[in-house]
Amino acid sequence: MALKIVKGSIDRMFDKNLQDLVRGIRNHKEDEAKYISTCIDEIKQELKQDNIAVKANAVCKLTYLQMLGYDVSWAAFNIVEVMSSSKFTYKRIGYLAASQCFHESTDVIMLTTNQIRKDLSSPNQYDTGVALTGLSCFVTPDLARDLANDIMTLMSHTKPYIRKKAVLIMYKVFLKYPESLRPAFPRLKEKLEDPDPGVQSAAVNVICELARRNPKNYLSLAPLFFKLMTSSTNNWVLIKIIKLFGALTPLEPRLGKKLIEPLTNLIHSTSAMSLLYECVNTVIAVLISLSSGMPNHSASIQLCVQKLRILIEDSDQNLKYLGLLAMSKILKTHPKSVQSHKDLILQCLDDKDESIRLRALDLLYGMVSKKNLMEIVKKLMLHVDKAEGTTYRDELLTKIIDICSQSNYQYITNFEWYISILVELTRLEGTRHGHLIASQMLDVAIRVKAIRAFAVAQMATLLDNAHLLTGNTQRNGICEVLYAAAWICGEFSEHLEEPMVTLEAMLRPKVATLPGHIQAVYVQNAAKLFATVLRGHEGVPADSMVAQETSQLLIDRLPLFVQSSNLEVQERASCILQLVKYIQKLQQKDVEVAEEVTALFAGELNPVAPKAQKKVPVPEGLDLDVWINEPPSGSESEDEGRKSKGKAVFAKEESRHTKPRYTEVDEKELAKRREVRKAEQANNPFYIKASPSSQKVYQDGVGVEHIPVVQIDLSVPLKVPGMPMSDQYVKLEEERRERNKADKKKKKDKKKREKGEKGRRRRGDSGPESEEDITPAHMVDIVTEEMPENALPSDDDDKDPNDPHKALNIDLDKPLADSEKKLPVRSHRPDEVLKSPMEDRQVVEVVPEPKKKTGKEKKEKKDRKKSKEKKKKHKQEEEEDLMGAGSEEPVQPEETKEVAAPPPASTPEASDLDFWLSNAPVPSNPQAAAAPASTPRTASGMAAVAPDSEPEEAKDTEPEETKSSTHKKKKQKKEKKKKKHHHNHSDGAGDESVQNGTVEEEEPLPPMSNYALLAENSYIKMMKQDADKVCDIQGNLQDGSQVVVSVIFENKCDSFIKSMEFNVLDSLNSKLQRPDGAGPHDGLIVPFQLPPGISNEARFIFSVQNIVMPQKLKGTLTFIVKTDDSSTHEKLDFKLHFTCTSYLITTPCYSDAYSKLLESGDLKGCSLKLEGVNQPFHHLLARICFHHHFSVVERIDSCASMYSRSIQGHHMCLLVKTADQTVSIDAKCDEPGLLGNVLDEIKLTFSQC
Amino acid sequence: MIKAILIFNNHGKPRLSKFYEHYSEDTEQQIIRETFHLVSKRDENVCNFLEGGMLIGGSENKLIYRHYATLYFVFCVDSSESELGILDLIQVFVETLDKCFENVCELDLIFHVDKVHNILAEMVMGGMVLETNMNEIITQVDAQNKMEKSEVRL
């Protein structure tokens, strides 16, 4: 034995170590590969020895060779051997090698589990450290599952060195084994406040990574992070936290408001550029998330832009780059702030650094306006000429086209200029983007009808000079534009001045060198030109020679294409050749053929939207997955196949026969259909109606004369081939604008009309200059792209289904169930014998513990469950506004122990968050802020209404200024059928509910009404009845909760009112339910008419998503007032106010169930004190019952418990006590936000008494 | 997350490669080559960020690099890392190497790539920044080296 060791160490002396290997490789530069292969042979020998030192040395060398690109996976087992050495030196070598070359499919990895576990619990912290580091690189789902508990224990290790490594590696564990996230999370959260800054930083790091992918699960940590942000001085930690906030703010605007101030302070105080930059970035994210609701942050934007300007002006290229990057984020929401720095950005285009130029280009995209487009593009064109590298030049080219074509050519006022820019771009050498230019040419020529004449002339010039484009083989990409040129010249040949010349150019022998698909277009369009030439020359006897010469030209030239090796070219050419030969025969007999030849190419092509095909809805009753015929059985399949093939051919022929029949439908029928279709389009929200010419799209080719071809009054001859012309346009345009300005005063009226025309195109309202001042050079008429009728809205889902982070979308706010506190671990492992993974799995499967399933199976199951869970959770979170899992139904612990916590509960964190956020200095919700302002009036009005108040009386007692802002009062309603008598017994329900609990009637109840004036004018009055709730008590959230609003319409004038249309502007949260097929902005027709003095009631259903906040919806009622001799259209605006109590439904509750509910501890409390209430207690209760939809559970003297339930199933319990004119209400609810709002509303009700 | 850390010299010879996601050896070499190609053609006085992240992961990845004498230090990172922060980290890394090797030069990295790995392991773990404090890193590296020496003596 001793001898062996001695022998081993002697051997080792002769072995090469890593340094020798490196030196050897450097000395064998000529035959490196050969040298290395001999080294690998040596290494293989060394690995066969028993001496661990020799092996470790060999593995060390292999790690180096791996870096050089050699596959060393064959030595995986030896690496494991070295890893398991007891000496730290070797262990480290082994783990390093493993971290470099092990991965999930390395099968020996599963042998390492026990070794790693041993190392993790080693008394030597560096053994543990090395194991953790190695594991972080090669952790597999199996390792993660088996070691999760060990690592979790290490998170509380006494040494910070181990703690921080354990915390960091948990992220990898979560990724591979998502089930560990919930059990480990509490401890991870603890580490955020670890005394060691390194550990703290690691925890922040991990949570930031987690939160970046699934931010909403981490919102409840916001207060903690906020505290860290204001207390930490570690810039690394601060940067991470600030980045995290950037990801959280879009989900919770209130958070953003809270952040602005400390972030601004940091921006002012920090000297670290990296921190400053991240602060600015997050402020931008906050501003983006607030952009709708908060107008008063211009100071913050200014601060950001100003700081970014400093970065951009810095001489450090890195800061410049980042400044531009952040600027482009601001651009999206606050373009004006960025546009004022145009000078700086244009300056960056001249920067020597390509990355910076590219960033600046990105910014330019958002900075153009009608006014500066030409100027900016001119500048870019200069850069195109100067650009040395093709990549940057190509980038410039695409940017020019992007900038010009953005938003449907929104900023182009002069399309002639744009065409000439495109033509100039064709002179770029070696660009890859020929097809891009070509498609722009086609797009513009097809969609801007007014430009066709000009475009055709330009294209003809291009075709004539085609040799310039094709001469150089390097310019291959650019010859694509000839494709467009040929097509445009052919299709719109009626605009050609000299079709003969162009035809000749298209048939030059040189054309045969072009790519096949371009030749094919040449041939086809030569035929179109031929038709045009014929038409131009026929009828005039002197010209018949010209026509015949043209035929001869084609007959001479086409054979060249007939010989083409490209099938398409060949086919078209031979077909057309025969056609021309036939025509020539006819011509010789003096037969007029032009008419028929032209007919070959008649008809106009319309642009079709790219997604049109995809959006054709599947007709009702058509199931594309169902077999039309039963699938043939296997034995007959061949036979059947042949048959069906035959059928198909037959069917095709048949359809060909029927086609002409279809076209024979008479004109009247066609017109009728057109009308129907137009009407459909008008109602179809998905049909693009932007263009004034949309109706033209549906007209036959004959309708071409409608196209407004505007005379172009250009004084400068522009068609000089080979000269850049766009500059001249810029000059012309300037002159024109000057003229326009001068004319403006004189022709104000005319101007208005012009503006109207322009308004039909979508206009950017973001430009800093008054864009109104710029009228397009000529009427631009962009044909919109066709979409199928009833096109479906886009539902593209761009989430990557393979993203490992999807599995980590786990609710972390739910408290852990007992069963969850420990991770499921295998009780034992099979011995460390080399086995295939399959065998291993089988062994485990036999283990008779039901919950320990094999990795794969388990994962599958979990995935399924998780996807369901996620869906559910997602919904829930949206609706409950982060308030935790209050309404989630209890689930079997057995079923969900890995992922979901069973008991329904809202955690302290969640409510803390809300509390924390609601303390924000800024009002947390504009709606909430608006509510108190308008509610008092309602209440006072309500109090004065007589008990049997008819709507009219209610109106009389309303204060004067009831224009549009009164709201409903509440009244509970158990059954719909009651509704019929509603306005007669409006107080009945109130009594009833009080009687639930009050035995005696001490005093008659004061009158209460449930109608409120919604809006009125001299014609009509709208009374809104309490929103009655109809809901799915099951809390079936998928169906959305519904609120029914009854509105009484009363005719106040002497005329007949008809065609009432009720419409409401939907908010994200509340939507008016419209019949199927109606668009989101369509109004609902009120199903009755009103003779003078008559009132009637209509009900409208709203679906509500989130009931935590009160809602306000704006709406309009349009109607026609018909008098004997005239009828007028009238409009009445109103606002519907859904208070939170309107989401409550009176639900009886027995006292035992009630006390159980309170005992469960799931409800959060809140209390309210009302001073100076001097009404009898039972009146008070009645009011609460009536207006806030509660029922009395129990009443003892001056104390009562009340209960209600929201339409989404939140329980709400009140304990009302009274003493000396003071009423105290203790309330509990599983949804604190809702509770708070309801209490506010109760307070308001009583403050009016 | 840091996706990869590469060190190569002015000729593109790899001196250290650390990938935090698995790639085959061939792909790794290709990534190194292409990264070298991207980085080496850039002037000295241009910015240190490159959006050439198509090599590793998606387009949201960035290359952040620094050039010291004969060596390029390239970090490939995703959007959760702060650009300027990573530049600082590279600086810390290089300074740490300088302390550990006493005036580090390319040769140190050539012959002691294992040591460079060990130092790096104290800074970045599994693609996440572990420690940025140079003194702390050096303390840990030294302690481990001491342990190694004591084992050799045994």
From TrEMBL, chain B:
Gene Ontology CC annotation, any one: cytoplasmic vesicle membrane
Compartments, record wording: Cytoplasmic vesicle membrane; Golgi apparatus
Membrane topology: Peripheral membrane protein
InterPro entries xrefs: AP_complex_ssu, AP_mu_sigma_su, APS3, Clathrin_sm-chain_CS, Longin-like_dom_sf
Pfam families, per database record: Clat_adaptor_s
Function: Part of the AP-3 complex, an adaptor-related complex which is not clathrin-associated. The complex is associated with the Golgi region as well as more peripheral structures. It facilitates the budding of vesicles from the Golgi membrane and may be directly involved in trafficking to lysosomes. In concert with the BLOC-1 complex, AP-3 is required to target cargos into vesicles assembled at cell bodies for delivery into neurites and nerve terminals.
PANTHER family, alphabetized: ADAPTOR COMPLEXES SMALL SUBUNIT FAMILY
Family that this chain belongs to: Belongs to the adaptor complexes small subunit family.
Protein name in UniProt: AP complex subunit sigma
